Structure formats: structure tokens, C-alpha cells
Amino acid sequence: MTRFVLHRIGFYVLIAVLLAFFTVPLLWLASAPFTSDPTYQVRLPDFTSENFRAILDNPYALGSLWNSVVLAAGTAVLVVVFAALAAYALSRVRLPGRDALLYTLLLLSSIITGTAAMVPLFQLAVELHLIDSQLGLILIMTGGLLPAAIFMMKDFMDSTPKSYEESARVFGASPLQIVRHVVVPLVRPGLATIAVWAVANVWGNFLMPYLLLSDVEKQPAAVIMYTLYTEGGQANIKLLATFGLLYSVPVVLMYLFVSKKYGFRFHGGIKR
């Protein structure tokens, strides 16, 4: 009995430590922007707005957030569209070595990351005149995310019944009409999951925009945040905390909206 009680106490202590480990940084992020003199400690805020006015005075802060939205939205749209079409084709067409191709793409996308392939990607961007171009950065990040997106999306496509498509085909629907009006409504949870996953990957990406975008007016928030330091390399806690809160809010709101509307389920829209 004593051993059981000690095990339960140890379990709850461990859970409390883990909760504190993840909760304290969030409490700091929520309180520091509203504190006139924030430190690395979590303190009750005095609800000042000076930090937000300081961020508004920064000529690149708000513009960088808009750049992040453009890059994340553009990449997410391309990833969702191309992944859905490729996954549908791989799900419905029996190709020799199809599964091996999928696992190979997933393996290569995991091993050859953007960091490892940075030199050839940079040379390719130079040859195609895509340096300092947001479109070029969107295309490069789309290519990096597509293999894993196709692999995940195929699971949703496999779980949708083919009888719906056959019925639409009998009534004369074209393949694109079948995809648009039959398949897409059934796999909307999968499309939402892929979109959120793509946005999260692009939103926090620092290396690619830092190397491919030299114009500070085109750089996203992940890169501009790096400039919120003093010349001596010390963090400007006021600006970093406030900008970090603004930087986090769009992704959190998107996640809550998509989770409430569709949920994150790794199966299609029809239960069989």
C-alpha cells in the first residue's frame, strides 16, 4: 500500500513538473508584453501599452508579419492543391512500385532537409532569378513540404469510398468535377490538417528566408525577430516579448478555428 501511494505521488509530481515546464513560458509570453519593465521572470503585469507603441514605431515589424502571412498562405495553398491531386492519383491508379515511391519520397524529404540542400537550392534560385523573390521562396518551400504532404494526404484519399465517384461518373462528371465536388468535400479534414501543418512549418522557418531574401522589406517575422537585439547582442526583452506575442497569435487563432471546424482526424469524411 505504501509503495502504491509513493508511486502515485511521484506520478503526480512528474505531471506537475511537466505542466510547469510548458506553462511557465506561455505565462511569461502572455504577461511580459503588458509589463513596463519585463524581465525573464514571470510577474503580474501592470497593463502598459508602451511596448506595443514601441513595436509600432519599428518600421519593419508589422510589415514582416504581413510577409509571413503571404509566405505561409501561398505555400499552404500550393501544398494543399498539389498534394491533393497527387495523393488522389496515387490512391486511385495502381502503379507498379507505388508504395515504394511514396516511402522513398518520405525518406528523402526527411534525410535531405532544406538545410542539407541549401547550396543546390541557392544555385537553382540564382539560375532562375528567384533570389530576393517571395514567389521563389514559396516555390522552394512548397517543394520541400510536398513529399510528406502527399504521404499524409494519401491516407485520407484511401478512406473515401469509390462508389461516390462511380455514381458521379455515371452521370457524366469529368475527373476534375469528381475531385472538386465529390472527393474534396469528403477529405476536408485532411486538407485542413495539411494546411495547418504547412503554415506552421513556413511560419517558423528562419534559414530559408534569411538566405534567399536580402531585402528587409520582404523578410518575414521569423527573420525580423532576429534584429530585435542591441548592438552588443543583448535581447531587447520589451520588443521581443511584444513581437513574440503578436507573432504567435495568428497561428494559434488559425489552429483553434480549424480544430473547431474540422478537427484533426487522420481519416476521411465518411466512416465505413
Automatic annotation (TrEMBL):
Q: Which SUPFAM superfamilies match?
A: MetI-like
Q: What is its main location?
A: membrane
Q: Which GO terms describe its cellular component?
A: plasma membrane
Name the GO terms of the biological process aspect.
transmembrane transport
Segments traversing the membrane: 9-30, 65-88, 100-122, 134-153, 190-212, 239-258
Q: Which InterPro entries match?
A: BP-dep_ABC_trans_perm, MetI-like, MetI-like_sf
Q: Where is the ABC transmembrane type-1 domain?
A: 65-258
**Membrane topology reported for the UniProt record:** Multi-pass membrane protein
**Compartment(s) of residence:** Cell membrane
Q: Keywords in UniProt for this one?
A: Cell membrane, Membrane, Transmembrane, Transmembrane helix, Transport
Q: Which domain of life is it from?
A: Bacteria
Regarding protein family, the annotation reads: Belongs to the binding-protein-dependent transport system permease family.
Q: Would you tell me the protein name for this molecule?
A: Sugar ABC transporter permease
Instruction: Please give the organism.
Output: Planotetraspora silvatica
